[in-house]
């Protein structure tokens, strides 16, 4: 397919330059954040407010430039009630002159939403257009949603406490005052002081130890605030490969992985012993380009981060593991999307690629499978229009090169796509009836185009046929035993269990026999298998295996596993509903605050 080499965009401004972010209280369009430096000390102690309680304290030093032609009299930062700011000083930097001494400046907070507040800093003299200045904020943070404290019992080692930060989507305002929006990026550095025997790590490009208890970090590339991450604990390192750092988190970590640059945080659930969950690592590595280098300008465009990353993950997986395996994995993803849309209703506005986040709504509350799997379908559709995999791969490289270190909207990407492939633009592929780009972005529901997963049939068909054998009331054990399940890959087992779950409840007694026939499944240590076995057990009210659901939920706190099992318990028998309440009472303190809130809503829906 003919295409032109795009030149520079003729200095044309990005659509994202005008993008609003209703989830930020900050004046991020009025000022440019040039650099952030954190100088913090960690104290591990009891929870609470008293002296000696656990907390991070120190200063955030913000290097800023005024962008408003008329100048400004006030700066607004994203903050949170758990951040206690006790002092603010400002140092002006007049060009060519000796900077005057820093002077104290007045500040106050202003309510914004249930997930944050505005910190307003007033300038004694107005800040002039293009003027640079430094703002030093002395603060402390104890208990709050952005800084997650774990007691020794909540860690794998059980000896020492642990603390980590989780910024995405809007939680870093509860770690340090900032422009907490993905619309803008800056470099950062940090000096972290820890108690004896502890190690600090951050999402930074370089680090060095300074003295016995201090660690200095620098991130030389500009990143959005949500990618600034810190973890402190009794950490041990092991060399497993070149140039890519992973931090295996305590079991209560709420995500499979978090793509913090240069240091991906991952769940210990990935240590399945069979390399079967490597696709999560591939996914997080793919975020280095899609999400970290080119970023959605607001959380309503989250599909730009996740849809591209799913596409890149599956391209890499096809090369490493072959098309059959990758189509099988993609089929399990499609099943999750189907499950989500069945529960939420296809017409739910969250099932658009471009989600309209209303003021006051926490972007985390809009999180679901759509940006991942529907986003993947849209990127696959655009590749299908090109019709040549090599050309599309080259386009993806050009796209990254065009927008690197910037934040964009769908319009920026789609205009670039049509400029890169002028004959597609001439054919007006953006308005093919039923497949209009506008429909993809703004109409909720099932994707208009689904990539062909038939290369996976060699792995999927046997799983579908075996599932059919298990739904009859008279089981044909001879046919069942003829299937060599021991040779199946983990994703084949997952796909098989998805089919069993879709067909559940099975005839009485079948689930018991299924568990006895396949101890590899019913006693699995692999988290993806444990999740699905738990869902099957609950959908069939197979009470003698309820203890496995309890054990799994006590062993980890990943949102993707925790919420579906609570949904399943609450949709099952009275015994299962009681089990849900008992497990939550025992494990709530170990869960990330967001996950605990979502479970609470499942147990006691609003308005019930």
Automatic annotation (TrEMBL):
Enzyme class: hydrolase
Every Peptidase M1 leukotriene A4 hydrolase/aminopeptidase C-terminal domain range: 458-603
EC number: 3.4.11.6
Binding site for a peptide: 166-168, 254-259, 558-560
Primary location recorded for the protein, binned into one broad class: secreted
Residues reported in the UniProt entry to bind Zn(2+): 283, 287, 306
Cofactor note: Binds 1 zinc ion per subunit.
Domain of life where this protein originates: Eukaryota
SMART domains xrefs: Leuk-A4-hydro_C
UniProt catalytic activity: Release of N-terminal Arg and Lys from oligopeptides when P1' is not Pro. Also acts on arylamides of Arg and Lys
Zinc is among the record's keywords: yes
One GO term (biological process): proteolysis
Keyword list, A-Z: Aminopeptidase, Hydrolase, Metal-binding, Metalloprotease, Protease, Secreted, Zinc
Active site: 284, 372
Keyword field contains Chaperone: no
GO cellular component terms given for this protein: extracellular space
Alphabetized GO MF terms: metalloaminopeptidase activity; zinc ion binding
Cofactor(s) named in the record: Zn(2+)
Compartment(s) of residence: Secreted
PANTHER family: AMINOPEPTIDASE B (PTHR45726:SF1), LEUKOTRIENE A-4 HYDROLASE (PTHR45726)
Function description: Exopeptidase which selectively removes arginine and/or lysine residues from the N-terminus of several peptide substrates including Arg(0)-Leu-enkephalin, Arg(0)-Met-enkephalin and Arg(-1)-Lys(0)-somatostatin-14. Can hydrolyze leukotriene A4 (LTA-4) into leukotriene B4 (LTB-4).
Family of the protein in this entry: Belongs to the peptidase M1 family.
Entry protein name: Aminopeptidase B
Phylogenetic placement of the source organism: Eukaryota, Metazoa, Chordata, Craniata, Vertebrata
């Amino acid at each position: 397919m003919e295409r032109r080499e795009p030149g520079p965009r003729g200095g044309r401004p990005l659509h994202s330059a005008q993008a609003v972010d209703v989830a930020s209280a900050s004046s991020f369009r009025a000022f440019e954040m040039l650099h952030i430096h954190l100088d913090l000390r960690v104290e591990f102690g009891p929870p609470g407010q008293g002296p000696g309680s656990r907390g991070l304290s120190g200063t955030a030093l913000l290097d800023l430039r005024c962008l408003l032609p008329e100048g400004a009299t006030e700066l607004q930062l994203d903050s949170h009630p758990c951040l206690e700011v006790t002092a603010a000083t400002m140092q002006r930097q007049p060009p060519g002159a000796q900077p005057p001494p820093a002077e104290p400046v007045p500040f106050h907070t202003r309510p914004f939403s249930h997930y944050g507040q505005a910190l307003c800093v007033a300038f004694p003299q107005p800040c002039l257009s293009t003027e640079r200045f430094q703002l030093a904020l002395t603060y402390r943070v104890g208990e709050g949603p952005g800084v997650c404290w774990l007691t020794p019992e909540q860690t794998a080692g059980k000896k020492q406490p642990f603390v980590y930060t989780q910024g995405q989507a809007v939680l870093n305002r509860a770690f340090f005052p900032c422009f907490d929006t993905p619309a803008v990026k800056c470099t950062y550095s940090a000096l972290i002081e820890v108690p004896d025997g502890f190690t600090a790590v951050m999402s930074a490009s370089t680090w060095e130890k300074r003295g016995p208890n201090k660690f200095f970090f620098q991130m030389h590339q500009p990143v959005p605030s949500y990618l600034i991450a810190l973890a402190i604990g009794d950490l041990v390192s092991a060399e497993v490969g070149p140039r890519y750092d992973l931090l295996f988190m305590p079991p209560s970590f709420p995500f499979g992985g978090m793509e913090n640059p240069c240091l991906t945080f991952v769940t210990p659930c990935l240590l399945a012993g069979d390399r079967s969950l490597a696709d999560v690592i591939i996914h997080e590595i793919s975020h280095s380009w899609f999400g970290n280098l080119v970023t959605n300008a607001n959380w309503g465009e989250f599909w730009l981060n996740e849809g591209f990353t799913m596409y890149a993950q599956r391209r890499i997986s096809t090369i490493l593991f072959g098309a059959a395996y990758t189509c099988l994995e993609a089929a399990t993803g499609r099943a999750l999307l189907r499950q989500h849309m069945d529960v939420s209703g296809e017409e739910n506005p969250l099932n658009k690629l471009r989600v309209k986040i209303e003021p006051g709504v926490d972007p985390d509350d809009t999180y679901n499978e759509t940006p991942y799997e529907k986003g993947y379908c849209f990127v696959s559709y655009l590749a299908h229009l090109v019709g040549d995999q090599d050309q599309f791969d080259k386009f993806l490289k050009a796209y990254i090169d065009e927008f690197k270190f910037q934040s964009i909207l769908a319009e920026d990407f789609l205009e670039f796509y049509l400029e890169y492939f002028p004959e597609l633009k001439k054919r007006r592929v953006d308005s093919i009836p039923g497949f209009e780009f506008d429909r993809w972005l703004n109409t909720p529901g099932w994707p208009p185009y689904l990539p062909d997963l038939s290369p996976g049939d060699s792995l999927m068909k046997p799983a579908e046929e075996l599932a059919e054998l298990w739904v009859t009331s008279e089981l044909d054990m001879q046919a069942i035993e003829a299937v060599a399940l021991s040779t199946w890959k983990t994703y084949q087992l997952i796909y098989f269990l998805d089919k069993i779950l879709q067909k559940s409840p099975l005839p009485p007694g079948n689930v018991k026999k299924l568990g006895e026939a396949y101890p590899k499944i019913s006693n699995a240590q692999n988290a993806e298998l444990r999740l699905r076995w738990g869902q099957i057990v609950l959908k069939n009210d197979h009470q003698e295996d309820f203890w496995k659901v309890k054990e799994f939920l006590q062993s980890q706190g990943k949102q993707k596993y925790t919420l579906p099992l609570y949904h399943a318990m609450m949709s099952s028998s009275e015994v299962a509903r009681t089990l849900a309440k008992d497990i939550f009472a025992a494990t709530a303190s170990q869960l990330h605050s967001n996950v605990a809130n979502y479970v609470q809503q499942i147990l006691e829906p609003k308005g019930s």
